[in-house]
Amino acid sequence: MVAKAFHEMSPLIFILLLLCFMLNPILSKDIKDARPEKQSFEANMKSQNMKLIKNHLQKINKPFVKSIQASLKSPDGDTIDCVLFHHQPAFDLPEIRRTMPLVLPELPTRHNKSELTSEVKQLWNSNGESCPIGTIPIRRTSESDILRFSSFGKKLSTFPKEGRRSEHAVAYVKKACYGARGKLNIWAPKVTNKDEFSLSQIWVTNDAGPPRNTIEAGWMVYQELNGDTSPRLFIYWTNDGYNKSGCYNLMCSGFVQTNQKISLGAAVTPISSYNGPQYEIDITIWKDPKGGNWWLVLGHELIASNLIGYWPSSIFEYLRDHANLIEFGGEVLQNEGPGAHTSTQMGSGHFASEAYGKASFVRNMELVDKENHFIPMSDESLYAERPECYNVQSGCMKKNIPLATSNRYLTNALYFSLVMIQTLSFNECIGMQKATDKPQHIFVFRMHNICKNKKGSR
Predict the structure, then answer these.
(1) How far apart are the C-alpha atoms of 412 and 147, rounded to whole Å?
(2) Which pTM was predicted?
(3) How many CB atoms lie within 10 A of CB 194?
């Protein structure tokens, strides 16, 4: 019965098989023809992308007179190029070349004497390496850097990936200002994902627009940008609300560097330790009343040798005259999906109640007024999008806890105290200091454990 059925169906099977054999060359030809076309398209796109990358690298990696290669000379793995001052990326814009100041800026003045702060170094020159006079040290950008960070050194005003967002814990003042200064506690926070960052910085902003104009400086941990998890000195600027303009460090035309000892984007050292020595970076940003440019100083002494460089006022619209918003504090870019939250730390990653030596801080916040004088920041407001995850509190220093500097303790009676939950009056803050000294006003910010890998919250 089975043999009979097979015999009856065999002509039909034979016809079907014959059709398959006849069509097979045509189908296989189409498949073979499509595969090279797809491969050619992909190769063409890859070639175009590599051409764009190489063109960008040629713009920002300038000819150098000396190169400090990534080796024992630069323990952080960076290659530092010593580039002639007039060859740096900023001068690719003719308008910046034409408006270069011919005299040093007028440094802001203060009524009280500035105290010492912990000394911060960079790894690339920790073994005695340096750039010659007339050059500036620029961290070389590699092809892998661009492939890893495809936005060519820019922040994004909107994040295309759902769930990617910034969260802040800051103290801020909204009023006309001409600069800001603060001492930022340095830590190495744990960052969960490569495309997330954690930072501590100062924002000098004018948001009279749109668009927002802003200048930023501080330290950050950002593996997608820098390729590692070291805290690194950084600057940023934008004149269109993080849309098309601006960049990190010297990755585009804009900031003009004048200092031969500091490399923007390079790792900083030493780093604060939990319940151990605390280290800070002292940052000043102010508008020169003579030249009109916004200058950056790194270090507690406001002297010419600590000038890092300037942002020309000509690259801004609303910041050409003054800022109207100053912020100090921390920011985390988190990239978990909807309904989840990153476990990336801000600052030290510890609670405010753990206080000095355990929670991250910014201290001695000052503003620059129209007369180019430093004035203590007052009437500040505090802000955090997710206080259950990252929060900020203000307080003062009352108790003798030493600050580390160059691996030894200060002896000039400059001490910190526990950070109080509420803001105390100035008199309550004086503590062990002389009555004529200004109190050590402080802000702390950190991550709450409640947000680690938390699901179902936004």
Answers:
(1) 49
(2) 0.81
(3) 15
Cα separations (Å) of 17 from 7, 14, 21, 23? 16, 5, 6, 10
Q: Are 416 and 356 in contact (CB under 8 A)?
A: yes
- Catalytic site includes residue 331: yes
Contacts of 226 (CB under 8 A, 6+ apart): 232, 265
pLDDT value of position 337: 76
16-20, 138-142, 349-353 — most confident range: 138-142
Q: Give the model's confidence band at 37: pLDDT under 50 very low, under 70 low, under 90 confident, else very high.
A: low
- b/e burial code for range 141-152 (CB count within 10 A of at least 16 → b): bbeebbeebeeb
List 216, 280, 327, 366, catalytic entry: 216
How much is the mean pLDDT over the chain?
Answer: 79
Instruction: Name the residue among 299, 349, 298, 342 with its Cα closest to residue 187.
Output: 349
Dihedral angle at the C-alpha atoms of 190, 192, 196, 197, nearest 10 degrees? 0
Nearest to 182 by CA among 382, 328, 294, 379: 328
Return the residue matching tokens 């063409």: 44
Tokens in use for 113? 């004497």
At residue 69, the pLDDT reads 81
Written as one string, the DSSP assignment of 362-408 is EEEEEEE-TTSBEEE--S-EEEES-TTTEEEEEEE--S-EEPEETTE
| pLDDT of 38 | 58
Calpha distance 74→193 (Å, rounded): 25
Catalytic position from the list 331, 336, 366, 380: 331
**Measuring CA to CA, which residue among 420, 154, 99, 430 is closest to residue 291?**
99
Tokens in use for 39? 């491969």
Q: How far apart are CA 399 and CA 223, in angstroms?
A: 37
Active-site annotation holds for 162 = no
pLDDT of residue 49: 79
Q: Under DSSP, is residue 353 helix (H, G, I), strand (E, B) or coil?
A: helix
279: left (phi over 0), alpha (psi -120 to 50) or beta: beta
pLDDT in tens, 256-301: 999 999 999 999 999 999 999 999 999 999 999 999 999 999 998 8
The answer to whether residues 409 and 389 touch, using CB atoms and an 8 Å cutoff, is no
422 pLDDT tier (thresholds 50, 70, 90): very low
How many CB atoms are located within 10 Å of the residue 340 CB? 16
Tens digit of pLDDT for each residue in 326-362?
999 999 998 887 778 899 999 998 866 677 888 899 9
